[in-house]
Amino acid sequence: MMKYGQTKYLQCNHCEKPVTIRPLEQVNARMATLWTDGYVDSPMVPEQPLVANCGHCNKPVWLPELQALTAPDVTDAAEYKNLNLVQLQTLLQSYVHQASEHQLHLRIKIWQRHNHRYRNTKLTDVNFDIQHLDNMVKLLDILDMNVVQERLVAVELFRQLGEFGKANRLLHFTQSSLQPEVHLFMKKLISDKSKAVAKVEIDRCEELEAS
After folding, report:
1. What's the pTM value of the predicted model, to 2 decimals?
2. If you placed Cys at 128, which of 53, 132, 145, 146 could pair as Cys (CB 3.0 to 4.6 Å)?
3. Where are the extended beta strands (E) located within 49-112?
4. What are phi and psi of 38, to 5 degrees?
């Protein structure tokens, strides 16, 4: 069962017109598929993005950072528009000069979008294009290795980059913070020298989710 909360109205920080969001209050994740890059594929749970384009001026806005409107002109309200891969890559250029939560989020989303083409392959060895490789390497550079979830992201990045020794050492270092099923699952992928993104069981491997 999926249940939305009350519609909220946010003020675009570019054109100052109202943008609507409908937060999810209750979801059914039974049909969801979790992948090792943190992407969740669920026909029952639509994505609630952090960054999108304003429905009026079509400029990117970080939805959690917008001011809430208490008495909006609802006749002038518009829904936000999801960003495609090219738009995410363009927006990233505004945040590449220093590490930030914005850059981290965008690089993870871009990584996941690039991985889409490999989600249904049965190959363990895949060839990534230059853009995909460059984003993965730069994502590694801004991860906080003091945070368990970000260390898991690093394990997965090293694995996809074919750096299996680094992936295994980092996984071993993180083992005490993981459920045994998660550790064994990732260890097998590394020992198999698999570089392809892989499905995991969402109810057993929740620690693999990326923000």
Report:
1. 0.89
2. 132
3. 51-53, 60-62, 67-68, 78-79
4. 90, -5
